[in-house]
């Protein structure tokens, strides 16, 4: 079944509000096996809204509208939907009582214009709104269906979960299942090239790739008669994908790399510490962003100056002078210092040039990641060098952070 | 001039990505005096995209498209725009060299399908993309204009700021000037109430308020015949605003609070250090995100465990036991430890519960920010307590970070 989403509201066209409702509803619809055709946004303008509804019904069997159900003059979604579908509005006593008691319960006086909210298109199924005053509804006529929901995301979600999901079940025949796989260390086009043998001529499951900064995500989705069939098709496809690009995959369940690292540290009863120069706390911050990180991460050092590297981590000033502060030697000594001070199983460090101004003769995007492990991991230590060739400070810092996570991930997996 | 925005990408219809590009572009277009008519989202489907472009041009003079400019098979925006406007594509040598050098500079092999990105519609003005590989462009024909931009928000914004704004100026008769004022410590509705006398009946300059998490932003914009008139109108309005809410304003130039703090530290030749528990490096990270932070910030400590607080910062374990680890006493001792170890002029610390699970009898969102100053600032020390009453870990961590910045800001301004 083809569904389109129309958001009504001039604030969206002004760029004041992001249309997160369309994202939420699309996600829900896809999970239920509906095919989302278009998102449209239109202002509070009756002529344009009516024309848009009529033209959208040409290709779509259903339209879900959000916004414009409030009590004010420019809230006109309900009236226009009724007009476009050729039905009248009637005054619904129960809706009126609900709107009124919403105000009574809060010891507030109901404004006269709230009466407007109790008018409902003839033949509509009302979704009684416990999260606000706008009654929502679904209406079917001549093989087309319109669902009207309020704009505030909290109200809209409440109605979707509590009323719309049940209402939609009557329209759905197929079941949808999908998994999101996350990779690192391979670009989007290389990934696609490697997957070409299974992407080409593939109808179901579908495989979609998305590039994120420094990472790449794959979505494998199947729509079948039963959920069991859909799951089986996705799982089989994931096994094929695994054969081709398995070594780049760090999550089969749409997890962030930091989440995976924290989970694996916990599973392996390993502790972690960090010593950061150019990332300045970003690594520690992304690890501690994961609930439960306190079980595996206790110490982080941000040693931005040479004095801090020497004073806090005990890096020999002579080596800083001889090898330069951005060097593999200093990176390793920083990691060793953090490891010693925290007595952690793994210590990870970084020193580098994020930009905008590298030292003379050096390039932005050049960094050294050091690591040093405790007894449990054989006291091994080492480094990797990075050259992003970019001047973009934010981009570099984020990339450096991801590579630090990758080094920790590889140490846990005994791949370093 | 009427403009519509079309975002191309099945991931948007799957609900995997939020269409923040449309919001950003709408905001920019409104500032420049363009009238945004519609936002549309369509999947990677050539037939639908072509029909949508043609029907959108009925009411709109210009379409800005985002997405579908990549190297893969389903990237088809450029081809369809050329088709809809009735022009051919040609192979652009300069674009090809730029795409190729993008890979060469990173010591990466260019995949064969990246060649596709160098084809450009005949008659288009190319926007040379320094933020990625997708060449963007604007094309005018028969009184209609199409602008094609890549989908990744970072690339899109770079191109918009560096190329599209200039390109758009030829379509605009009026001159636009605006300033963005940033405030902290006051909610959006309180801010609006205080500004009511000047917001009411105000046509130009316009004043728009936007709430961000923990902060509030004001945009003052004027559109006049000349730039001088527009600037004068905005500056006069800012003086009025200053009289009403001056004490909440920390930037008149849309700076981040961290930028202002780093700038003021530099101006006052003051150094800063940090000791973080629940924010886990976020504070250090946002300070070091500002270019030039190395002049004022040398030491950051992430002491997530009690052992780290005692071992690294010298917080007396007995006091942790007596007062609890989340207490004003521990916050102040953490700041004193960081100040001593780094010999900085200002040390700031935090200990608290971000969520999801506070210790028994304590609430998520409760935190203590401590500070300790060196000789230059009279060795003063102290703390503030925060209670957000929220369980949201991400929200709390961000709010805590902003409050730490505010405390440092107030210390520099001698307001603490």
Automatic annotation (TrEMBL), chains A, B:
Residues annotated as signal peptide: none
Domain MoaB/Mog intervals: 4-171
Record SUPFAM superfamilies: CinA-like, Molybdenum cofactor biosynthesis proteins
Family: Belongs to the CinA family.
Name listed for the protein in its UniProt record: Putative competence-damage inducible protein
Lineage start: Bacteria, Bacillati, Bacillota, Clostridia, Peptostreptococcales
